[in-house]
Every structure is written in C-alpha cells, then in structure tokens.
Amino acid sequence: METKDYNLTISDHEFKVKGYWLDQVDDFGQNVDYPVVIICPGGGFTFHSEREEEPIALRFNSYGMHAVVLEYQLIEDRPVYPSALQELAKTIDWITKQPASRHVDKSKIILVGFSAGGHIVATYNGVATNELLRKKYGLEQYNGQHAAVILGYPVIDMTIKGSFPDDDKALHQITEDKSLWKAQDLLNENSKPAFVWQTQTDELVKVVNTIKYVDRMNELNIPVEYHLFGSGIHGLALGTYVTQKPGKKKYLNSWTAKWIELALNWLQMMKFLG
To answer: Start and end of every BD-FAE-like domain (predicted)?
Structure first.
C-alpha cells in the first residue's frame, strides 16, 4: 500500500488530501480496479479529528477500497462554505484523473462524513446533484460524481436548538448562506443513496438530525439504510480501542462498533463493492 500527501488547488487557495492507495494482488492473476472512499472527518469545523482519518481509511482499505482523507476548509479567516463544497468537488475531479495504473473504479466514489464533516457530505449530496446549485456554488468546472454517501453522527440541520452548533456566532462563521444550514432541504431526486448511523444518546448532535435527513430521502424514494444505536457518545469513530482516547472507556462500544460492518454489507448490497 502507498500513502501520500497531496496539495490540491481551487480558485483561491490550496488544501491538503492524503491518499491510501491499495496495491494489486499478484495472486488474483489479473488487475482489479478498486472503489474509493473520500473521508471528511469531524471536529466542529475548528479542527480535523485524526481519530476519524487514518483509522477509518485503513478499515476501508481492509475491505478492498482505496481511501482519501480531505482536509476541508475550517473556520479561520473565511467561512467553511462554499469552499468546502468546492474542495470536495475538486477532490472527486482529481480522483477521476488518476492514471490507469492507480486502478481506481471511478464510477464508485463513496463520500464518508462524520459530525461536522457529515454536514459537508450531506450538503454536497444535495448541491452537487442539482445543476442550478452546482453552478451557484462554483462546482460546474469540476468533473466526476459520487455514487453514495456514508454519514456517521452527522450534523444535518444547524438550526436545531440544543444541537450543534447551537450558537448564532458559530453558525454565521460556518456560513452566512442560510440555504446551506439545512442539508435535508437540499436533497433532490438525483441525490445519491445513503447509509446513515447515529446513537440515541448522542449528547452533541440531536438524533432529529439524522431523522430529518432519512425522512427526506424516503420522501424522494432514494435508497437509504439507517441505524440508530441505543448507546454511545458523540464521536465514537470506530468505537474500538483503535480510536479510544487513552483511559476513556466511553469511547468503547462493542455494539455500536458494528456500524462499519453494516456499512460494508450495505455497499455490497448496493453493488458498490464486491
């Protein structure tokens, strides 16, 4: 396997991605093109959680998928949006331009988002599949499209009281564009299938976030699989010792940790894997 950092560029700035590229297996006796996941970690739009980067990438690698981690725009000297959407579009475009020797199945690009990164992925699933919105937010210049999304304890509706961000100042720092505050309202009949999971005891992002998104997908007859686990804190990541903060048992949850196996099963069922 090869891991490599890259600097990509959109119109006004550079951003970083990291690729985790699978090697070919000689025993197969033929070349195989692998699907690829693009991972948007959480971090409240103020940092990128490393617990939701390499550990997640390596698990998807173990399922026979390339992985790319996107270090998207944070709240710094500019709003998160629309830069984060353009960065994601550019990353997809960049993947479609990988050489044949990389062996990427460019028809099977899966977006994976956690928490704040989940809002970027969920929003992109609406904006990038609407031609008018693609043009409005400067995505029309980029090629390629995603095939599906996987959302882990995602922020969906940033206007829900008592749920992240629950702070008008932070909300406006993320974006002044109110049409991007509610990812569920951006979904349309061309949006891609989704696998969504959350815990009922999430103390930071209320469960109503995922319910709103799944309900809207059902209304639009878009394939969706939803798992609401009965226990677990926000930010579980894998829910195993691999992503456990040292000495903090609350980051361990053997039942909720099954989410990634369920996601694998869903990818297989949807013909995105295997």
So the answer is: 31-214
